[in-house]
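Kindly review this protein for my students:
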Amino acid sequence: MKMELDANENVAVVLLAGGSGKRMEASKPKQFLELHGKPVLAHSLELLLQVQQLSMLVLVLADEYRSLDFLAPFADNPRVTFAAPGSERQDSVFNGLEQVPVECTLVAVHDAARPLVSINAVHECLSDASQYGAAVLAVPMKATVKESEDGVFVMRTLERSRLWEIQTPQVIRPQLLRDGFRRVRDEGLEVTDDVSIVEQMGAPVKLTMGEYTNLKLTTPEDMVIAEQILADRDI
């Protein structure tokens, strides 16, 4: 079902493509590996440029890669601009946020390593964020999760029914994210993802039901699975 976004919303996307992908054991960063006939990054760019009411896509990418041939059509798009990656994820998000126009009312942060997200899932997350101020794609945990204090022995088993695996995009009101970054910086906090910054503000974050096919490409095995998912979608 297609979600209709409030007509007053103005959307920006921050697409994180600055990672090195060491666990992929490849000769180049994983966002440039070929997946189903095109670079991983191209899949995300093509999809996100279809987002409703999109006014800006900020591609967080090192300068040395911006002249790659496949990026030329995207770089020529007036809605696409670039930002420099930072040393940590939150630094890259901050740099991307700095490029988001003040008139934007929602910012969606997405990992280029998740090229299989569907446009419907993105729109549902945007719609939830429009209503609640922040939303994140997530799926219920399938696996049993155990906690260990020392990495050797089990301390306890966590209640699976309360656990969700977080994906991207994560969609937030830009001012809420800016305020969160200010608090993180002032208090020296470390956060693992974008909505963690919102959590530090005590603001609600809506869980938007995602899809298990929205894989994060981390290892060579993930590329094989992603290739099969895309091939099945072609049928």
Q: What stands out?
A: The chain has a mean pLDDT of 93. DSSP finds seven helices and eleven strands in the chain. Helices lie at 40-48, 72-75, 89-98, 119-132, 174-187, 194-200, 220-234.
